[in-house]
């Protein structure tokens, strides 16, 4: 196996320079860092070290030593302290992996098939160990420089991406990340521009004092949270989602809707995607009454995905606009399981007034509000109206 490793070792310096050039060319943040001569020199020294150790240890089938991993962690820590973003941190690991594989193939000759396969087998576990050390160092560097709100936001982003290193950041924050979770998306209604980043960070800081969980306010009109749960007891987590939505509505002074979906921490992104869809069809309210699940809005979700059904429901909604307070009346009617007395009391009207309004709905739409068909159609139409 000497041919491959001999040529690979000879090219260490050239490969290191090529790697630093690639970082500068492909990664804007590294381009800015490498513009400083001292930093570029440090990058080059580290690139040489990493390649030299890779060749030597691959040839012997030996893992990286503790001292090697400590040095990688120190470099990651330095990058984290300089504000290297999560995106750039991931990209540099990807570029390094790609370059390493190319260096192996360039050094391999026609008689190095066995050596090449041996090296590729060694690279998988060794590369993961090196990347893990660098990432742990980067997380530590981020923790030294970022405010708590920013650290929690970063944790949420990493969990959304399924990043295994997120557990290291969660551990440093003393924030539990169980296997079973309920993803919650709070949709904030209202026009643009909405709260700016500074305001969202202030709001998020206040939320964390009450709701110590992974959460992020990435966009003006959306809050994402991961609520710890258990396989057979999701209701407490859903209720925490409702409390979160009410706090968001109170802070922003805007109506909100909360969508939830159960999931596993390793598939958090999928659960958030579903919770987001639920929140988009759930009614927005000044004081949210419910954290919705797919079970609550499956009809609305189906209607939202079929343009023809959506258009038909718009016709029904337009018919309801012709009567006084019919949408609010139907909303209360279905919220109280079609109980006349409870609905009238909630609306502060006489039961006969309620009966008049329900008759008006039937006359306008041709649907009896208390019939099976009426419930299916009218409750979906009302939900779409209230969702905005």
Automatic annotation (TrEMBL):
Coiled coil: none annotated. Gene3D superfamilies: PucR C-terminal helix-turn-helix domain. InterPro entries: CdaR-like_regulators (IPR051448), PucR_C-HTH_dom (IPR025736), PucR_C-HTH_sf (IPR042070). Residues 326-381 form the PucR C-terminal helix-turn-helix domain. Transmembrane segments: none annotated. It holds the Pfam family HTH_30. This is PucR C-terminal helix-turn-helix domain-containing protein. It comes from Micromonospora pattaloongensis.
